Amino acid sequence: MPAYAGGTGIEASGSPPDPEVTPKPRRRILSAAYKAALLAELDGCAPGEIGAILRREGVYSSSISEWRKLRRAGQLVATKRGPAPLVPVKSHPENKDLLRENRRLKRELETAHLIIDIQKKVAMLMEAKRNEDKF
What we know:
Blueprint: H1 32-43, H2 47-57, H3 61-73, H4 93-134
């Protein structure tokens, strides 16, 4: 590891660091067809050959175990990664009624908050008047 001279960006040997940026490694995404073909190949192998195939393909045995579980459950199918797409909800007539009631209740709540604020201010004024009268 090269030593750097005081944060100048120049190595202690006097030459600037290598500006070559190495590409970020990308995670392999294996298709369901590839997984199924590999499982079929592994199922037909003798026990000593499995390790060689795993090394050749660059796959861990834990992945194979997981794929076998998925295959037994019938879930080893091609899927897209990421969140599920949003499915539009069909508008039911009761939704309109519920939205209307929700808006009405929000207005009532806002009115109730205003009334409570006014009551607090009146109570404070009355308390201040009572304290004034004592002195």
